[in-house]
Design brief:
- There is one protein chain.
- The chain is an alpha+beta fold.
- Helix content is 56%, strand content 23%.
- The chain has a 5-stranded mixed beta sheet with strand order 1-2-3-4-5.
- It is elongated, with a radius of gyration of 17 Å.
- The termini are far apart.
Length: 133
């Protein structure tokens, strides 16, 4: 097993231990949260010993959020919990990568802002819709 394969296996194990649904494609590992369609994405560039860790909102995030709002769930609490769990996983994965000599670029915070923008847009649309009724 190559060093990169071992790293990918460690990252996969971390994601699985946090109940993320795993998708692997070459040197990219995506862990999708079970509660919301938000993924933690780790891209490994083995020839440069670099990695990028970021969050990605999946296509159906807006629809999922709208469904949660309609069922009177506290969307902001759910989102905060999901983002916190993904952030914790990112920290653990960063440690593994750095311990193995990788330079890690972490884009989680800037991606988190983008995801929160989506949430606020959906909440605002829902409030406007309620006011019209």
């Amino acid at each position: 097993m190559s060093k990169t394969s071992e790293i990918i296996e460690k990252i996969t194990n971390i994601m699985e231990s946090r109940d993320l649904n795993i998708e692997k494609k070459r040197n990219t590992i995506k862990g999708i949260h079970v509660d919301l369609p938000i993924a933690l994405v780790v891209k490994i560039y083995q020839n440069r010993k670099q990695a990028v860790i970021e969050l990605e909102s999946l296509e159906d995030l807006s629809d999922t959020l709208a469904d949660l709002i309609e069922s009177n769930e506290n969307v902001e609490d759910i989102v905060d919990t999901v983002l916190s769990e993904l952030r914790d996983a990112a920290i653990e994965i960063t440690r593994v990568l750095e311990t193995n000599g990788y330079m890690v670029e972490i884009k989680v915070m800037e991606n988190e802002k983008d995801i929160r923008d989506i949430i606020y847009e959906v909440l605002e649309e829902y409030r406007e819709f309620e006011e019209e009724e």
